[in-house]
Amino acid sequence: MHGAYRADSTPAGALRSVRSSSLEAAAAPTEQVREAEALAVEFRDATKTYPGAEAPAVDGLSLEVPAGEICVFVGPSGCGKTTAMRMVNRMVEISSGDILIGGESVRERSAAELRRHTGYVIQQIGLFPHRTIGENIATVPRLLGWDRDRTRARVAALVELIGLEPELADRYPAQLSGGQQQRVGVARALAANPEVMLMDEPFGAVDPINRERLQNEFLRLQAELRKTILFVTHDIDEAIKLGDRIAVLREGGRLAQYATPAELLMAPADDFVEDFVGADRALKRLALLRVGDIDLWQAPLAFTGQATSEVRAKLAGAEVPYALLVDGDRRPLGWLSESDLACETVPSRPDSSPDPLLDLDDVMRDALSDLLQAESQYAPVVDAGGKIAGVLSVEIVSDFLTSEEEALTDEDRAAAEHGAAEV
């Protein structure tokens, strides 16, 4: 059966995820996309109490988000995570305390001016249906008085950056898929090169497959742009995957722990955080590792028309006991079966497809899930250009799971415990 692993079969199956280093191999954005410097965001005992409420929605929140990092606010419903984020651009006014962007209090700037320099992405996207994609992206630059040429160049650069075809800029939102619309929403938030970006469950309404793709695209963009981003989600897995730092809020808007994903997983501050993170913390650590971060195995490569005797000779002692057919640009075409290799020369169409392919950008946890779902031991991994970079095996993942805990140094443990103790 296609996709199942058998002793005499070819491997099928794979995984999908995200990675930062191959992201950097993608085409660099134009100078117009790079021009703004990221600014740190600091909450200083920030509190929000609504009139008539018995308790604050956000209670004395203090933390600092370094410039160019992603801080994810996560917690149960009603914990104040969205309220905390919306105080940054004064969509919700602070009752007491303060929030600083680049060392300047948000109270010292007008709400309108602050919002025009703060990108905002929401779950519902909020594109104007009567405006084209290009016009939607140009909304804030036009409010800021940019001239036509500068605005047009900015729109073109952002359409390219988010991976849309240029002709889509002339279409209307209803003519795009939900995933494409969400990417346009991100582009619109980036249009005026904001100091800070706020993202309120931006992928929450998207189906799981497109959600994973959007997360990966988001990480690719962040690797390029290095914006300071405050991101709200209820999904701890998404928080671990996307965040440089995670702020876990408990009911009543109080900070339970503020830490890196590794610190959060290795040293939860208390029972509440441990329960919220979940019992499968070992598996969640796989979300901290990208496929391209590890030493991949190498499969013997074959080319259409090549003598199969040459391919068979490569199989002896190879890390992967199957030959992978690639095209002239070294892009995987499929795995060669015994019947393929029984021919005199390598056929142009192998018995087994390489799908699903993995990227160097993929998260290891997602990779393991895809491998298991496909019942495969091996999956080809490609770089940003689609060329074969290596092969991920179930054995590699298994070795990580069994050795990762032992590999932690005393210094690592101390750092994790220190991060938990600071809250």
Domain count: the total is 2
| Terminal Cα span | 53 Å
The total count of strands amounts to 16
Which structural class best describes the helix and strand composition? alpha/beta
Estimate the helix proportion, in percent: 25-40%
What does the main sheet amount to?
6 strands, mixed
**Order of strands across the biggest sheet?**
6-7-8-3-9-10
CATH topology of the largest domain: Rossmann fold
Q: What is the helix tally?
A: 17
- Mean of residue pLDDT values: 83
Under the CATH scheme, which class of the largest domain?
A: Alpha Beta
Radius of gyration: 24 Å
CATH architecture assignment name of the largest domain: 3-Layer(aba) Sandwich
Spans of at least 5 consecutive residues whose pLDDT stays below 50 are 1-34, 405-423
What characteristic shape results from the CA principal axes? globular
Residues in β-strands, percent: 15-25%
Please describe what this structure looks like.
By secondary structure, the protein is of the alpha/beta class. The chain has 2 domains: 30-285, P-loop containing nucleotide triphosphate hydrolases (Rossmann fold), CATH 3.40.50; 292-401, CBS-domain, CATH 3.10.580. Helices cover 34% and strands 18% of the residues. It contains 17 helices and 16 strands. Strands 6-7-8-3-9-10 form a 6-stranded mixed β-sheet. The N and C termini lie far apart (53 Å). The model is unreliable at 1-34 and 405-423 (pLDDT under 50).
